[in-house]
């Protein structure tokens, strides 16, 4: 027996027990001048198979690191600095690090040059053509071609993803001036600049916050914003393109039709072939209260403008009609605001103190309806529970429509 207060020492390890055969060692080498120092990375005694796997893994890691640094110093060198006035995505380069759209532009120029027969040109035309070519080459040295759709792929293995354009700083400033300073209608600005109305409203709100911060002396992260904007495609403000009647200045689709829940059902509706079945008729089939597609789109006035263009209405008359529609819309908006103010003056009583304004509104109990669930009743959204919370209420559907 061993006494309780004494300890036994483990057997001493032999001098050769911690040695690993040379074929089973993973060595890390570092050169200092012409000398090479080797340090043993593993001191455990592996079996023959385990040692081979360990040795192969180290070789594989070294090869991967070598390939990584080879790519960083080779084709990946172009990603160290951003391209001026352009995005710099992986999809825009080939495996050798060459910009594809530069080669594509050069091929197009060569094709155009091949079409021209220089033997038929006179000496003056040849000299003029050479001078124009040299001038164009000087300009192209400092000019980056515009990105193609294939150049906007940040992930080369995902061909379906394209980086979408964002509004540039000058375009956002122009939208803010049109809405706030010039008091132009939101829908008019959206149609004029090809920007969705929700995006225009968001730009105005954010620009107002930004200008408020500047007036309060708060610092803005301008360098960070400029660096991020250089990495993504932008829609720049072009006044010449905006004033050209033959071209459209557009950032995104602005007249997409939202999917109404009533239109998700599948209906087989028989109709007569002797009459025209319009969008208004289709809306009434889905629901008697559903508006037609022409009335549900965000900018319904664009349909009238397109109809005038198809019917070859003169430009002056079209401009007059657009102005007349805008004036009617503005007058209706002002009339609605006036009636709302008059109603608030009659029914809302405001009690003010040093910090708050308390608003008391006159109500009518009869507006709640016979069952107390009227839409115009007070607290109809949260004051009265729904029927599905009542005892014994059948929650399973009893009919299919």
TrEMBL record:
Q: Name one GO biological process term.
A: mitochondrial translation
Pfam (any one): Bot1p
Q: Which InterPro entries match?
A: Ribosomal_mS45 (IPR021036)
Instruction: Spell out the residue ranges making up region: Disordered.
Output: 1-54, 107-155, 371-401
* Domain of life where this protein originates: Eukaryota
Q: Which GO terms describe its cellular component?
A: mitochondrial small ribosomal subunit
Start-end of Basic and acidic residues biased regions: 117-151, 385-394
Alphabetized GO MF terms: structural constituent of ribosome
Residue spans with biased composition (Polar residues)? 21-54
Task: Name the chain's protein.
Answer: Eukaryotic mitochondrial regulator protein-domain-containing protein
Q: What is the lineage of its organism?
A: Eukaryota, Fungi, Dikarya, Ascomycota, Pezizomycotina
């Amino acid at each position: 027996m061993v006494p309780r207060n004494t300890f036994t020492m483990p057997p001493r390890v032999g001098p050769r027990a911690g040695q690993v055969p040379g074929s089973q060692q993973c060595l890390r080498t570092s050169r200092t001048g012409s000398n090479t120092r080797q340090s043993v990375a593993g001191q455990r005694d592996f079996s023959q198979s385990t040692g081979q796997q360990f040795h192969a893994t180290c070789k594989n890691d070294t090869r991967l690191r070598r390939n990584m640094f080879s790519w960083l110093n080779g084709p990946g060198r172009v990603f160290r600095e951003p391209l001026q006035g352009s995005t710099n995505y992986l999809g825009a380069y080939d495996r050798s690090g060459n910009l594809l759209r530069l080669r594509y532009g050069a091929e197009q120029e060569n094709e155009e040059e091949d079409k021209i027969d220089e033997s038929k040109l006179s000496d003056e035309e040849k000299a003029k053509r050479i001078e124009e070519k040299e001038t164009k080459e000087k300009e192209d040295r400092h000019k980056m071609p515009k990105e193609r759709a294939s150049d906007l792929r940040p992930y080369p293995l995902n061909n379906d993803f394209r980086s979408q354009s964002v509004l540039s700083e000058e375009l956002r400033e122009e939208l803010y001036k049109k809405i706030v300073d010039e008091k132009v209608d939101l829908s008019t600005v959206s149609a004029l600049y090809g920007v969705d109305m929700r995006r225009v409203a968001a730009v105005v709100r954010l620009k107002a916050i930004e200008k408020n911060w500047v007036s309060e002396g708060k610092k803005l992260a301008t360098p960070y914003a400029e660096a991020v904007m250089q990495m993504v495609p932008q829609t720049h403000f072009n006044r010449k393109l905006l004033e050209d009647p033959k071209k459209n200045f557009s950032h995104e689709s602005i007249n997409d039709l939202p999917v109404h829940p009533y239109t998700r059902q599948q209906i087989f509706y028989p109709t007569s072939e002797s009459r025209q079945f319009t969008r208004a008729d289709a809306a009434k089939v889905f629901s008697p209260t559903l508006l037609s597609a022409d009335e549900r789109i965000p900018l319904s006035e664009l349909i009238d403008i397109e109809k005038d263009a198809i019917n070859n209405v003169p430009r002056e008359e079209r401009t007059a009609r657009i102005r007349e529609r805008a004036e009617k819309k503005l007058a209706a908006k002002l009339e609605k605001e006036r009636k709302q103010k008059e109603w608030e003056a009659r029914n809302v009583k405001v009690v003010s103190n040093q910090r708050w304004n308390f608003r008391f509104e006159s109500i009518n109990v009869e507006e709640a309806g016979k069952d107390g669930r009227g839409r115009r009743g007070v607290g109809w959204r949260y004051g009265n529970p729904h029927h599905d919370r009542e005892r014994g209420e059948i929650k399973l559907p009893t009919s299919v429509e």
